[in-house]
Amino acid sequence: MQWVDRKRYLGLFGLIVPLFPFLGGALATLTGIGVFWYIGPILILGLVPLLDLLAGLDRSNPPDDVIAALEADKYYRWITYLFLPLQYAALVWACWLWSGDSLSVSDKIGLALTIGIVAGIGINTAHELGHKKEKVERWLAKIALAQPFYGHFYIEHNRGHHVRVATPEDPASSRVGENVYAFLPRTVTGSLRSAWRLEQPRFRRRKQSHWSIRNDVLNAWLMSVVLWAALLLVFGLGILPYLLIQAALGIVLLEIVNYLEHYGMLRQKEVTGRYERVRPSHSWNSNNLPTNVLLYHLQRHSDHHANPTRRYQALRDFEEAPVLPTGYSGMILLALIPPLWFRVMDPRVSAHFGGDMSRANIAPGKRDAVLAKATA
Questions:
Q1: pTM score above 0.90
Q2: What is the rounded distance in angstroms from the CA atom of residue 306 to the CA atom of residue 304?
Q3: Which partner from 52, 175, 250, 314 sits 20 to 30 angstroms from 335, CA to CA?
Q4: Distance linking the first and last C-alpha atoms of the chain
Q5: Residues 268, 362: contact at Cβ < 8 Å?
Q6: H or E segment and range at residue 370
Q7: Among 296, 333, 291, which Cα is nearest to 311's?
Q8: Is the pLDDT of residue 1 over 80?
């Protein structure tokens, strides 16, 4: 029988995300209820976790012999392309509203948070595009990252995180005993330093200054500077607080997802002193369908790390990969309450390593306590 992708058209639901601000605005106008301006956080952190629980799991994989044809199908990539104009239409419309007097400060904050949700999922769109070999897709990734002012992610994620993943040297790999509030400043500052350092050797080999427009960190930041300057010039300085709110939420959303993806996972060192190669067992997976539809199968993270250039529609589930108890949206809520997070996730890390927590990636200051608890 010919294999058919039953999720082919579900990917279109991902394009609803950049329409959240317009939907919230329409509902707020029709009902007079200002809470609808907060529709982004309400849907992503309220409705989607519930849908993940109700919809169940999708563990279906495309057969090996159709993967090449599936990846070549341009329908799937156009879904990611179309996210960007919708993302920027929402941003410009929001700036227009922020600059006027038709909304209260509370409504404007709600709109900023909704735009921040769009920005955060826009970073995920950039993640999908930035891994591809086509030059146009890599540039589209930078455009998506310009809104939250996080262009260095393009460098650090591809050339830093994917090399050092599930090791203590990776600022984007969280550790047992490390709560999300400690992780966030560590990963944000560590990723920024890493991206800057990763670009320097390329110019050193050419005996050129890395202070150049060809520096991918600088040209990505320049895109943000130009974008924000244009918005401020057109709509006024009054929109700056809301631009900062949406950028901060987009960045935090991305980094909390990073926190989920490799918590406690550790690649063991071989006799040579080098870390073992990346395997599916080094990433937490989730097959909850609603969140996977919205995030281009980002939750099938094990296959993504094993095959970074593989397109989202061809990513597979692996039996050996550790599994999160629910989708990313629900896990974000859990991460925000550290005692509950540790209670749910630490036993799963221990089970993954056969009860030997010494094989896990543990926060340095918490190592003795974690090991003592594991042996108690």
A1: yes
A2: 5
A3: 314
A4: 54
A5: no
A6: helix 367-375
A7: 296
A8: no
Measured from the Cβ of residue 134, the count of other Cβ atoms closer than 10 Å reads: 10
CA atoms within 13 A on the CB side of 174: 28
The rounded distance, in Å, linking the Cα atoms of 372 and 362 is 12
Q: What distance in Å separates the CA atoms of residue 355 and residue 339, rounded to the nearest whole number? A: 20
- What would the two tokens of residue 242 be? 């809301």
How many Cβ atoms sit within 10 Å of the Cβ of residue 278?
Answer: 19
| DSSP code per residue over 215-265 | SHHHHHHHHHHHHHHHHHHHH-GGGHHHHHHHHHHHHHHHHHHHHHHTTT-
- What whole-number distance in Å separates Cα of residue 21 and Cα of residue 302? 32
Q: Is 310 helix (H, G, I), strand (E, B) or coil?
A: coil
41-94 pLDDT per residue, tens:
999 999 999 999 999 888 889 998 999 999 999 999 999 999 999 999 999 999
- Each residue's pLDDT tens digit, 263-294: 999 999 999 999 999 999 999 999 999 999 99
Query: How many whole angstroms separate alpha carbon 32 and alpha carbon 34?
Result: 6
The Cα-based distances of 116 to 21, 44, 371 in angstroms read 10, 11, 39
